[in-house]
Amino acid sequence: MFNAISLFLHLSLSSLIITTQSTTLPSEISALQSFKSSIKPSTVPSYSCLASWNFTSDPCSLPHITHFTCGLTCSKSFRVTQLTLDPAGYSGTLSPLISKLTQLTILDLADNNFYGPIPSSLSSLHSLQTLILRSNSFSNSVPPSIANLKSLQSIDFSRNSLSGSLPNGMNFMISLRRLDLSFNKLTGSLPKLPPNLVELAVKSNSLSGPLSKSSFDGLTQLEVIELSENWLAGTLQPWFFFLPALQQVNLANNSLARVEIWQPTKVNSDLVAVDLSFNKIEGNLPINLSGYPLLSSMSLRYNRLRGPIPGEFSKKQSLRRLFLDGNFLNGTPPGNFFSGVSSVSGSLGDNCLSSCPVSSQLCLKSQKPTSVCRQAYGGKSRS
After folding, report:
1. Cα separation of 15 and 18, whole Å?
2. HSE-up of 312 (CA within 13 Å, CB side)?
3. What is the domain extent for residue 110?
4. Does residue 317 belong to any structural domain of this protein?
5. Helix, strand or coil, per DSSP, at residue 247
6. In contact, 117 and 95? CB cutoff 8 Å
7. Among 69, 259, 294, 317, whose Cα sits 20 to 30 Å from the Cα of 16?
8. In this structure, what CATH number is given to the domain that contains residue 322?
9. d(CA 16, CA 380)
10. How many Å apart are CA 199 and CA 177, to the nearest integer?
11. pLDDT digit string (tens) for 338-368?
């Protein structure tokens, strides 16, 4: 009888210990409560994830039948590891107490209506790998303390109202692979960038000045650069196209005045697409771009380019899209473009070319009036 009672007490105590250990930390429950209370109740639809967050139940205890049915993921040790909200139109601020979720690896609040500053306390989330605040209304600057997140691999702050310049110290974010800050109100120049970056997107902001080599030093894995629709100016220098992993470049709709491109130093360059359209680029068409073996798409539309179109482009088998319209290119376009040798599509229209066959789609739009071309070439007739 004594042994049975002892066994019963032992099992009861063990069960109590397991139950005690199998609950979410009080600090994390407080953080989740603060997170929810910072969101306007009127913007929490009855069908949404947040509507199921009822704190009469433990957030990490299973099964989630009626409470905490989505938006939250916990580890086997009952720590909150992911906070991924549904795009239900939640409106509110982001509580600084979210920093108490110290095991968080993913924070995704995309496609809602969060507003106010991004809390600098996020820098305490040392396990964070993915931070997505895309398509909200966050304002103020990007907090400099974000550079402390050494495990962060992906940042997406696109489509918000962030302003000011990008913080220095981002080069210490050694794990960061993807950075998207597009469609904000950021100003100034690019700081020194994270060394292992693969994708950089800061489209449609107000970045200004020239692109500095010091910003890109050591970026041996950078494949995609999307900096269109800014105020970048000056000369795009030869080092830019020597970035060893570069595949896609979009610098359209800026104020670049010149482009200096050298022949690629390696035959196996991965450059596939270049868009420099709608800038203020002067001089001749950069012939050295034709030396990039995989180049498939090239656009220099609506710049101030002059001179003839080099024949090398018409012989380039990899080239599929070529947009040179809206410049002051002159002479006769290479015959290979129209002989069936080249399969390139695009436009050579709105230039000063002669003998561009009107039957070819490449020659649409029509060429500039002779008077405009004479003025562009100092009164000389186009030839």
Report:
1. 5
2. 11
3. 79-348
4. yes
5. coil
6. no
7. 69
8. 3.80.10.10
9. 95
10. 6
11. 887 678 999 999 999 999 998 899 999 999 9
CA 192 to chain centre: 16
**Are 211 and 188 in contact, with CB atoms under 8 Å apart?**
no
- Whose CA is closest to 61, among 47, 79, 49? 79
Specify whether the CB–CB gap between 36 and 109 falls below 8 A: no
**With contact defined as beta carbons under 8 Å apart, do 206 and 186 qualify?**
yes
Quick: pLDDT tens for 171-192: 999 999 999 999 999 999 999 9
- Domains held by the chain: number: 1
Residue 126, in any domain of the structure: yes
* 139 occurs within a structural domain: yes
- Measured CA to CA in angstroms, residue 232 lies from 121, 159, 202, 330 at distances of 32, 20, 12, 28
Tell me if 189 sits within 8 A of 209, measured CB to CB.
yes
Residue 62 included in any domain: no
> Residue type for 121, please?
S
DSSP state of 78: S
Beta strands across the sheet bearing 352-353: 282-284, 304-307, 328-331, 352-353
Distance, CA of 207 to CA of 232 (rounded, Å): 6
Residue pLDDT, tens place only, 2-52: 454 443 434 343 333 334 445 899 999 999 999 999 999 999 999 999 999
